[in-house]
Amino acid sequence: MNWEQVEGQWDKVKGNVKGQWAKLTEDDLGKLGGKKDELVGAIQQRYGVLKEEAEKQVHEWAAKLDQKVHAATDKAVKEGDKAQDKIENGPRTGVGSNLPKSS
User: Fold this and answer.
1) DSSP string, the chain
2) Structure pTM?
C-alpha cells in the first residue's frame, strides 16, 4: 500500500495508527488527514524522537500494513477461487467425494 492509498483510506487505517502509536490523540489523527509528514511530526512531538526515528517507524508500520493488505487480498482470491470451483463443479460431499467427477 503506497502512501497515496494510506492517505485515501485514512479513516479506515487511523485505528491501526492509534494501535501503533497510542500517544497520538483522536484530535491528532483527525488533523493528520493521512499526511505522512504530519504523522512523522506528530510522532516526533508525542514520543520525543528524532525525525529519522519517526520516519523509520512510519516506514516499518506502512510495510506491515502492506503485508496485511496483501494477505487479505490473497485470502479473498483463494475464497473466490473456491466459490468459483463450487459453481462450476458443484459441491463434493458424501461417499467418494474426493474422487474426480466423471463426465
Assistant:
1) --HHHHHHTHHHHHHHHHHH-TTS-HHHHHHHTT-HHHHHHHHHHHHT--HHHHHHHHHHHHHHHHHHHHHHHHHHHHHHHHHHHHHHH----STTTTSPPP-
2) 0.67
Q: Write out the residue range of the structural domain in which residue 50 sits.
A: 3-86
Note the pLDDT of residue 99.
57
State yes or no: pLDDT of 75 exceeds 60. Answer: no
Report the CATH number that the domain containing residue 33 is assigned in CATH: 1.10.1470.10
For residue 79, is it within any domain?
A: yes
Residue 72 pLDDT greater than 70, yes or no: no
Domains held by the chain: number: 1
Q: What is the pLDDT of residues 35-54, one digit of tens each?
A: 999 999 999 999 999 999 99
